[in-house]
């Protein structure tokens, strides 16, 4: 079973994907980490984020196992990731590794922006997780605080708005809900309620046959 979870920044898709993966005992790939790691590689080498040639080389050289999540999940890396993620050749360089992960015999859970539309158009379950911008900004503030950062709420809200616009407005694999994806609005749901709703979507597909 392949479960594709997409949605905008801080919508809760990562938490839902992790919970589903653990519940169904499936491997999970947070595809945002691929873009974050590509951006981090460029920044660490003092290269501009628009350096296409080096960005593609970085993307091709990524190993799925050694992500330093502590480094990659910082606020500025999300912004940097969305800049490299808008380069079509960088996205192309990352397609194969994501599809191979999805094709594992066990099945898999992948979360990102284009899993249900481009990476796994034939996924068994597709969920598009969303929430109001204000709720997402509040969640991101709490998440960054728990990581020891001291984010300014207004700045976080502006960052999310800018990232939404960049992710949805790019020409290559823009963020959008797949036609056959179920929408899950988590604005008024806590983690347990969001997970239950997602699980109900999966169960509906499992019992359809
Ligand atoms: O956790 P959050 O949603 O803030 O970020 P993320 O999922 O780690 O993604 C960071 C950035 O990578 C996004 O803003 C997208 O621009 C890009 N991304 C993408 O284009 N396609 C994906 N499948 C995953 C992430």
Mean pLDDT across all amino acids: 95
What is the CATH H-level superfamily?
P-loop containing nucleotide triphosphate hydrolases
How does the major sheet shape up? 5 strands, parallel
Number of domains: 1
Name the structural class: alpha/beta
Which CATH class?
Alpha Beta
Strand content: 5-15%
Largest sheet: spatial strand order: 2-3-1-4-5
> What Rg, in angstroms, do the CA atoms define?
16 Å
Q: What sequence of helices (H) and strands (E) makes up the elements?
A: EHEHHHHHEHEHHEH
Shape: globular
Number of strands: 5
* The CATH architecture: 3-Layer(aba) Sandwich
Distance between the termini: 13 Å
Helix amount, in percent?
55-70%
CATH fold-level topology = Rossmann fold
The number of helical segments is 10
Bound ligands: cytidine-5'-diphosphate
The low-confidence parts are none
Task: Provide a short characterization of the protein structure.
The protein is built from ten helices and five strands. By secondary structure, it is of the alpha/beta class. Strands 2-3-1-4-5 form a five-stranded parallel sheet, with helices on both faces.
List keywords for this structure.
alpha/beta, binds cytidine-5'-diphosphate, 209 residues, 5 strands, Rossmann fold, 5-stranded parallel sheet
Describe the overall structure.
A five-stranded parallel sheet has the order 2-3-1-4-5, sandwiched between helices. It has one domain (2-206): Rossmann fold. The chain contains ten helices and five strands. It has helices at residues 13-24, 32-44, 52-60, 69-72, 75-84, 88-102, 115-119, 133-146, 153-169, 191-206; strands spanning 2-6, 28-30, 108-112, 125-130, 182-185. The longest helix has 17 residues, at 153-169. The protein is α/β, with parallel strands linked by helices and 209 residues long. The mean pLDDT is 95. It binds cytidine-5'-diphosphate (CDP). The site of cytidine-5'-diphosphate (CDP) has 16 residues, from helix 2, helix 5 and helix 9.
């Amino acid at each position: 079973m392949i479960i594709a979870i997409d949605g905008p920044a801080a919508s809760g898709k990562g938490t839902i994907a992790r919970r589903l993966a653990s519940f169904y005992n499936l491997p999970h790939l947070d595809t945002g980490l691929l873009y974050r790691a590509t951006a981090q590689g460029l920044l660490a080498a003092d290269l501009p984020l628009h350096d296409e040639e080096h960005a593609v080389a970085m993307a091709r050289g990524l190993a799925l196992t050694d992500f330093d999540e502590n480094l990659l999940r910082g606020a500025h890396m999300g912004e940097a990731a969305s800049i490299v993620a808008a380069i079509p050749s960088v996205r192309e360089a990352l397609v194969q590794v994501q599809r191979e992960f999805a094709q594992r015999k066990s099945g898999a859970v992948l979360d990102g922006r284009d899993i249900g539309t481009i990476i796994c158009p034939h996924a068994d379950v597709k969920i598009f997780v969303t929430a109001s911008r204000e709720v997402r900004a509040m969640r991101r503030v709490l998440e960054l605080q728990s990581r020891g950062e001291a984010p300014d709420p207004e700045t976080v809200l502006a960052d999310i708005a800018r990232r939404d616009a960049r992710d949805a407005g790019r020409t290559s694999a823009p963020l959008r809900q797949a036609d056959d994806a179920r929408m899950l609005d988590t604005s008024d749901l806590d983690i347990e309620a969001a997970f239950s709703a997602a699980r109900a979507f999966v169960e509906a597909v499992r019992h359809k046959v």
